Give the backbone structure.
Amino acid sequence: MAGDGRPSPRTSEWEALAVHPFLAACRRVPTGHTPVWIMRQAGRYLPEYRAIRARLSFLELCRTPEAAAEVTLLPVDRLGVDAAILFADILLLTEALEVGLEFSKGDGPVIRRPVRTAADVARLPEKDPGETVPYVFETVRRVRQGLGGRVPLIGFAGAPFTVASYLVEGGASDHFLETKRLMYRDAGAWHALLGLLARLTVRYLIGQIAAGVEAVQLFDSWVGTLAPDDYRAFVLPHTRAVIRELPADVPVIHFGTGTAGLLEAMQEAGGDVIGLDWRVDLGAAWSRLGSGVAVQGNLDPAALLAPPAEIRRRAALILARAGSRPGHIFNLGHGVLPDTPVDHVRALVDAVHELSARGDPGSGTP
Ligand code: CP3
């Protein structure tokens, strides 16, 4: 242990090698089986989650560390996944920006006061996440205690582009026209907004790491809407600024959807692991990226609506595409859909474990 109570790099490296397949795979170290976790694994498809949500609104749940920690642990107990992901949301950080964040029933997130002009950007306060979302860090501490070292805990944040898209659009969007309007009309205001989000995100993720998360995922879920040149000019420098500021011994997963045209540029921005959606062939995408990076993915979330035998067949195909290359973390290509049968998610986790078992007790077996 280092003086601050966090494991020294040497200790965490040893743990990665000897104990946790997920952390080992992030480092492209061979593992006894392919680790698997599921984006949105603590969500509405779980009856236990729906029961808790009957008592608490989504934001109340996020703001109540005891309940958020309980929800984080549900899929670990129920599914046998190889990692837990903090229960929170990429938009919690925008609470600090005083833009009127709400989660309305059925419609998803709403930003009451969208950010559309240079003056709107200039008005945004820059407050420390330790002051504005202390409950997230408290949830991390409780989850680490509840996990007792069983599996690693992944923290996360939205990448600057995806968070900005909600701020500018005022909610979800199909074509991101307001976002692109700001980007194309007022590059100064755009870069000021993404610069601010990048600084806040660094402090937010470092706070999560200090509280105990062992890896982080940066969600750039909607960045696939951009042309490669625009990604490079308007987004890459800000995402890179976030990743560069994070401690080197904490693996970073850099995820987006619809990114077939952006993978090399995303890799340039950084990340130990690149998250792939189902629209790319995992083997071909990994060959493009090269052996210097790990990959995560990439089953179509809708495939979990198929019968378990078909789920198993599709999992085997993805594992075959990864082949014997170390550094594959199995996941869906995006979040699990709310009407997915829990048994099917369990069938996927079991199938990945069985089909990928390499029986090497020396490295990464649970
Ligand atoms: O993966 C996990 O289990 C951890 C928890 C988590 C949530 N949101 C909980 C949540 C994570 C990692 C997120 C990330 C997130 N949030 C993203 C990036 C990932 C992605 O899906 O692309 C985005 C874009 C958001 C913003 C967001 N939050 C939207 C668009 C919505 C509404 C749509 C939806 O799925 O309901 C949310 C709400 C939300 N975040 C829910 C959950 C479990 C559903 C809330 C509910 O219980 O009604």
User: Anything to note?
Assistant: The pocket of coproporphyrinogen III is lined by residues 39-44, 53, 58, 85, 87, 89-91, 103, 108-109, 156, 172, 219, 221, 335 (CB under 6 Å). The CA atoms of residues 194 and 223 lie 13 Å apart. The two ends are 22 Å apart (CA to CA).
